[in-house]
Amino acid sequence: MKRCLLWLFFILIASGVGIAAAYEPIMSVIRDKPVEKEILFSLYKESNYTSKAYKGCSAEIYIAVEKVRSTTHSVVWDTTLDAMLLSKYPSLKKAMLKKVTIPNVIENKEHLEMSYLLTYNSKGSTLKIQGTKFIGKDTVAIKL
Q1: Chain segment 48-64, per-residue pLDDT in tens
Q2: Structural domain count, the chain
Q3: Does the pTM exceed 0.85?
């Protein structure tokens, strides 16, 4: 009888430890529901660009949104805006707006980053400016 009670006690302790070990991983899956993130990109020129020095100068823009989880980066959206004369880009008051929805983002394990590449062309010369921004808010501004 004592032997049976000892085995029953051992089984109860082992099952309790098993449940305790499985509780946190199960709860983290329940808590980590994927959500959709909406991002609003705002693109505008910061300067006037009407002087003769900028005549014929254009800019092309590549934008990518990456989902980052610890050290893993994966591109979830990207686009290239064709080259356009600097003077033709809108001012802050009339900024180009683009709304993008990124599905399946696990908020407490992943975040979004935007990287961009501005390529300026001026009479055969090329200047490339690269940048990365953490997307914390809903609106991200890209200034020329």
Answers
A1: 888 888 888 999 999 99
A2: 2
A3: no
Same domain, 63 and 121: yes
Q: Judging by beta carbons within 10 Å of its beta carbon (0-12, 13-18, 19+), is residue 89 exposed, middle or buried?
A: buried
Range of the domain at 17: 1-31
pLDDT in tens, 107-132: 888 889 999 999 999 888 999 999 88
Is 22 found in the same domain as 88?
Answer: no
Assess whether 5 and 43 both reside in one domain. no
